[in-house]
Structure formats: structure tokens, C-alpha cells
Amino acid sequence: MKFFIDTANIEQIREANSWGVLDGVTTNPSLAAREEGSYKKILEEIADIVDGSISAEVIAQDYDGMMKEAHELIEISDRIAVKIPLTKVGLKAIKSLSDEGVDVNTTLIFSPMQALLAAKAGASFVSPFVGRLDDISSMGMKVVQDIRTIFDNYGFDTEIIVASIRHPMHVYEAAMIGADIATIPFNVLEKLFNHPLTDIGIERFLSDWRRANKQF
Ligand code: E4P
Fold this sequence. Notes:
Blueprint: E1 2-6, H1 10-18, E2 24-26, H2 29-33, H3 39-49, E3 53-57, H4 63-76, E4 80-85, H5 88-99, E5 104-109, H6 112-120, E6 125-128, H7 130-135, H8 140-154, E7 159-162, H9 168-177, E8 181-184, H10 186-191, H11 196-212
Parallel strand pairs: 1-2, 1-8, 2-3, 3-4, 4-5, 5-6, 6-7, 7-8
Bound molecules: erythose-4-phosphate.
């Protein structure tokens, strides 16, 4: 499973990238709004740091505007995947951009049928938002499971990015289902390292070593 980081914060991206397991980055307008500088400048910096797919979202909600912004975004790097929400207009743009060979990450997916529409239009990625579904007492991971089944039934190669991840169990469940990618906030990525027995184990090894006054 690929790990993307879900942030536009350069320090977090730099730090996560240094761990050696980062495959890409996803951003959105809310994440970019928290950072200094223009969206394009932020994306340029991200492209310099991470050697992988970088999702950048259009702001326009009309077809011409989406196409114009998409073309500006892919000028920044050939690794940009254009994020487009699953609306009727969005689907038209997804189809046109996919026909041009542009990677599209269909965002704000909340049902298997929305994912099927995006895959049929040729999207490279679909992003089901599991946390936001869980927030309204729906089963986010059931949507991911259903999308996996549908894509496997028909051999779609559209990759599933599990998005809106809130905690390590979301990453675990995504991996068990066989989702292609999890896009993970920095604080959740950090939590993946944690196990109290690891900390206790290190402490015990070191205290035994010190007590014996051993040479390395
Ligand atoms: C995905 O690409 C989105 O950026 C993100 O996962 C949204 O998550 P949120 O529900 O925490 O805003």
C-alpha cells in the first residue's frame, strides 16, 4: 500500500519524506489556506521535496474554469494529479482531462456509485472520505470495501486513495481491504510508529547494557 501525506505544510512533508516511506502528497483548498504563500508556490516546493504523485485541487466549479486551472496545475510538475470533485460538471472535466492523459484524483467521494462514475470517466484515483462518513454515523470503510469489490469485478485500474483518515485503525483497515493508497495526516503517520512494548524494550536493553558496563 502506498502512503501519501495529507497536508500542504512543508515542514511536515520534509519530515515525513525523511522517513523513507512517503509515496506522494495530497492537498486541498482548506489545507493550502493554512499555509503562507500562493498555492502554486507551495506545490512547487512540495514537488522539489517529494518524488511522487502530488494532488492539487481546482477551485473553479464550472467546466471551463476547471479545465483552465487543471492546465495551470499540471504546468507546475508532471507529477501533479488534478483533484476534481464528483459533480456532473466535474465528471465532464474528469473525462476530458483523462482523455488528455492527465492524472485526475476524484475528490469528495462518499458512495461506491460516485467512485464507479469516476472510474468510468477514466480517473486515475478516487478518494473516498472515510472520516467524514464516520462523523455522520455512516460506515466509511464499508464504502471503501464496496469500491474495491466493484473495481475488481470489472478490472478498473483506478487507484483507491483512502482519505479523511483520522487514526491508525483507518490505515490498518484500508490495508486489510486492499486499498491502493492511504493519504494520512502527519499526526496519524507519527502514531503508526507507536507501541509501548517498543519503548519498554529499548529501555530494558539499554539499562541491561549500562548495568553490565559493556563495551560496544
Ligand atoms: C483528501 O484528499 C482530503 O485532502 C482529506 O483527506 C480530507 O480530510 P478531512 O476530512 O480531514 O478534511
